Amino acid sequence: MKSEFTPTGQPDSDRRDFLKYILGGGLLAWLAAVLYPVMAYLKPPKQGEVEVTSVKAGKASAIEKDSGVIVRFGSKPVILVRNAAGEFRAFSATCTHLDCTVQYRKDMGLIWCACHNGRYDLNGRNVAGPPPRPLDEYRVVVQGDEISISKKV
Amino acid sequence: MKTLWSNIYDWVDERVELGGLVEYMGKKYVPVNRHSIWYYFGGVSLFLFIIQVVTGILLLLYYKSGEQLAFESIQFIMSKVQFGWLIRSIHSWTANLFILTAMIHMFSVFFAKAYRKPREVTWFTGMLMFFLLLGFGFSGYLLPWNELAFFATKVGTDIAGAVPVVGKPMMVFLRGGEDVTGATLSRFFGFHVAVLPGIFTVLLSIHLLLVQRQGMSELISHEQIPPAERKTMPFFPNFLLRDLLFWLVVLNLLAILAVFFPWELGKKADAFASAPSGIKPEWYFLFMFQTLKYIPGKILFFDGEVLGILLFGLGGLLWLMVPFWDRKSSRGETNRFINYIGIFVVFYILVLTIVGWIL
Q: Which of A137, B63, B114, B284 is the most exposed place for a label (fewest CB within 10 A)?
């Protein structure tokens, strides 16, 4: 039978290393088994959302010229703008800068974000302030007096 | 009466040997000089923390988290619960004063280079607590679920999301999803009342223990005076009583602020309303907010705001690490460079805060 000690009296280093790996590996595996479920728990699950492709936005006659309103598009806000000439345009109302909701400013004739003074023209282009990108445009169809807004494909 | 107290003292002393501790406290001295006033700001921050814990627990008794409940529950606290308006106002005002006193404390420590060896850990725990305070402010701000808080949270978490690589997962983690919703409110509530206070208490214990163990730091210029010629004051009871007097003054100030300038509740958050004009973050975030306004959308190939956030992050990191790169102060030499940095930072924060306030 092999002795636990080498002839010099030192513990068998192979055996000691083996124990170190077993214990170290076991500890790591244990940590992973504890941390993985916790980390996974922290990640919010994807909610099944109904994909909205178009919404009705009310009556055209109810919206004055030179004004804008926020419309619900699924869970996202969309801004519907009617310019001075009476034409409708719709854009994502989420400012491309830091996620605030924009508004139509009559005095400027622009779409404006209150959070950081970002400005977009009535084509949704970022013309001043910090926004890095234009607003996504939506399609507006007016049938009779009914306005409907849909995603541009 | 005297014998009752001494009986209690003896009873405890017999078991846990209070004698050593009492003797230790009796030997603690506070340096007296024309900069001594700054020593009070740490203590008063501790007092404000205690007020936040007490008023926070009181608010918890009636507050309800949730998109449909939060705003209404604060309305209930402010209009129906006896003295609810007072408790809530004090909690809000204290939050602001707390950040202010912690800031003063931090800058005084910075300018005095009190972070130098051997007090690096005291500085780290203090700075981490300061970052946690900002976290407290940010998460607590959302809890009433009003319009301003809603957009402030959108912007704040979106900024976190702009950080390269880790930003997006971090944003989803903070928001509890892609957007700011009731899920965000639940998370912030959890952070505000459980996670942050837990971590804060641990850091605070280490911080206070170190202050007691190492004693008050002295200015480098004072260390050159022979110990026998330095003026000091016993911590107990002289300094402690002055501390308490200052606490009393601050408590009165809080009462005046809470009564005459009650904290507003505002309008309930609506995910389908435009951000209101004149929207601003709390004053302690204002200098960063104002800077973001001035940074153009694109700088070369980088998103302006990403660059701004990274710069602020880097600045914060350098500030946190100052005990390591300011070797001169640790050797007991004067380092004017640190003063210039400090003056620049104070000046920058003051100017941009004032500009942000006025515009």
A: A137
CA separation, residue A90 to residues A114, A124, A142, A153 (Å): 19, 9, 12, 14
Cα distances (angstroms) measured from residue B230 to each of B214, B223, B256: 17, 9, 39
C-alpha distance from residue B313 to each of A152, B19, B108, B159, B319 (Å): 38, 47, 22, 12, 10
Q: Which amino acid is at B324?
A: F
Return the SS3 of A104: strand
Return the number of CB contacts < 8 Å for A and B.
83
DSSP 3-state assignment of A90? strand
* Helix (DSSP H) and strand (DSSP E) numbers for chain A: 1, 10
Contact B150, A114 (CB under 8 A): no
pLDDT by residue (tens digit) across B145-176? Answer: 999 999 999 999 998 888 888 999 999 999 99
- In angstroms, the Cα distances linking B1 to B11, B22, B203 are 15, 21, 38
Which residues on chain B are in Cβ contact (under 8 Å) with A98? 154-155, 158-159, 292, 305
How does pLDDT run across B32-47, given as a tens digit for each residue? 888 889 999 999 999 9
User: Rounded to the nearest 5°, which phi and psi values hold at B279?
Assistant: -70, 135
Inter-chain touch A101–B173, beta carbons under 8 Å: no
Q: Which residue has the tokens 């409110």?
A: B185
Alpha-carbon distance of A28 to A37, in angstroms, equals 15
CATH superfamily of B31-269: Cytochrome Bc1 Complex; Chain C (1.20.810.10)
Work out the end-to-end distance of chain B between its first and last CA atoms, rounded to an integer number of angstroms.
62
Burial, B308: exposed, middle or buried (Cβ in 10 Å; 0-12, 13-18, 19+)?
buried
Domain residue extents for chain A = 10-45, 54-151
- Taking alpha carbons only, the member of B210, B49, B244 closest to residue B129 is B49
Nearest CB partner across the interface for A100, out of B155, B172, B173: B155
Domain boundaries, chain B: 31-269
CA diameter of chain A = 101
Cβ <8 Å between B183 and A44: yes
Who's near B354: CB < 8 A, 6+ residues apart? none
Distance (Å) of CA B96 to CA A87, B147, B241, B337: 48, 20, 25, 31
> Between the CA of residue A141 and those of A55, A144, A150, what are the distances in Å?
11, 10, 8
User: How many helices (H) and strands (E) in chain B?
Assistant: 17, 4
pTM of the entire structure? 0.90
pLDDT at A11: 63
What is the ipTM for the molecules in this complex? 0.81
